[in-house]
């Protein structure tokens, strides 16, 4: 009896179903916005018009000061730039804020189209109230024509205090919601985005280059959704 004839089509069908079930990989070349760490050199094929550049860190250890990470001042004509500061603490001093404002001024003086400042801080869902107060003070110190962006966790949509989110909505111009950890997309992201209906702040979705991503139903039609930001990786890690 010939078993191969029915088995082969079944195996091919199974393999086809597995390929369809796997989410597409994120391609940076087609992204409208990218996030660039110091030391990462985007390929010429990346034509993103909006670029988030990590400029410095406020580290947990020692005094709360800005640690520069980028040598010199970028010059990227034809792109819209966000100056990003990665923060591990919120007890910023006047000197910390002054250093950041000085860098913003240098970037603009170099002829860049600077959209504003992004704070990359992993605020816990329960700590949103304190974070909102910090951001309100920071917003008041920024030039009026610069915007304020923050990164956010997917959990905010599910368990964030509505009152704290409302405070953020009156202070920040956008939240960039992170969907990855290290170099991989966080599993189960669909469940979080199912609860984004009514999210009170304009938001982008941050994807990791090469990670799996399939837009959940209804995400891209939400009124506050403003697009994607692709986190670029070094070539050996892609």
Structural features:
two-stranded antiparallel ribbon, 11 strands, 26% strand, TIM Barrel, disordered N terminus, 238 residues, alpha/beta
Description of the molecule:
This protein has an eight-stranded parallel barrel. Strands 8-9 form a two-stranded antiparallel ribbon. The longest helix has 18 residues. Strand 8 and strand 9 form a beta hairpin. The protein is globular, with a radius of gyration of 21 Å. Helices cover 28% and strands 26% of the residues. The chain has one domain: Glycosidases (TIM Barrel, Alpha-Beta Barrel). It has 238 residues and is an alpha/beta fold.
CATH architecture: Alpha-Beta Barrel
Main sheet record: 8 strands, parallel, barrel
Under CATH, the topology can be stated as TIM Barrel
Order of helices and strands: HEEEEHEHEHHEEEHEE
- The number of helical runs is 6
Question: At the first level of CATH, what is the class?
Answer: Alpha Beta
- Give the % helix: 25-40%
Task: Bin the strand percentage.
Answer: 25-35%
Structurally, the number of domains stands at: 1
What's the overall average pLDDT, rounded? 88
Q: Kindly report the spatial arrangement of strands forming the biggest sheet.
A: 1-2-4-5-6-7-10-11
Task: Measure the end-to-end span.
Answer: 48 Å
Low-confidence stretches: 1-20
Organism: Novosphingobium taihuense
Protein name: DUF3142 domain-containing protein
Keywords: Signal
Signal peptide: 1-21
